[in-house]
């Protein structure tokens, strides 16, 4: 079996690639950073049980580049049996503070990059009457978060995209699935946490992130069981299926917590002013 993974140089993508390689499958990695890809190939080969490993650098947001990369993968390892579309980026910032370029890049990579990857393998899979496409979305697809306008938009759009091509794939032999991972301990997550607004943390809570390996195992198990959707926690499953009933109440609770946070911020600032004669801004109230 040949598995192609976009975003395969790190994080969830690399963890999925290593897990498949450990099963003896042929694995191809696609990512932008050639140096990180070289290291990823060594990591995959270190756990491989005999399957070949191939890697090629490409920007998933550029259709022609990605199509060429997928063709190279299939030349090296044969037709794609499983596509893991996991390339993605996140750049937290309030909408009015986020540059247009940063907004567009998240949409291009997360949404268009996934569509480009699916398009690159779809025709071949349809002609052969078999294949699996796994869309890696996010728990952020299920609810809007402060500071994540571009990311939430791109990841929630993937839900509609996956459902649409699931409908189109009926009778073709192609299985299209989507998963919604929670916070996952990856290099990107570590960078994201330095920029995550406190308002987002109010809603998301301070929950220990999953390991990329645990996410990868759940994704592969879902593919093996032919699941159309994979939710990783009870809370995300509740948002997915009961969102219209839960989110209005959650919104009321969130607004009250923000008001409380604003009051605590003001109180702390006033206390500092009285004690030191200077004002002090507090960015992250302890809620």
From TrEMBL:
InterPro entries with a match to the protein in the record: KR_dom, NAD(P)-bd_dom_sf, Sc_DH/Rdtase_CS, SDR_fam
Q: Name one GO cellular component term.
A: membrane
Q: Name one Pfam family in it.
A: adh_short
Name the coiled-coil region(s): none
Q: Which residues form the Ketoreductase domain?
A: 1-184
Q: What family is it from?
A: Belongs to the short-chain dehydrogenases/reductases (SDR) family.
Molecular function (GO) terms listed?
3-dehydrosphinganine reductase activity
Where does the source fall among the domains of life? Bacteria
Name of the molecule in the record:
Short-chain dehydrogenase/reductase SDR family protein
Biological process GO terms, please? 3-keto-sphinganine metabolic process; sphingolipid biosynthetic process
- SMART domains reported in the protein's UniProt record: PKS_KR (SM00822)
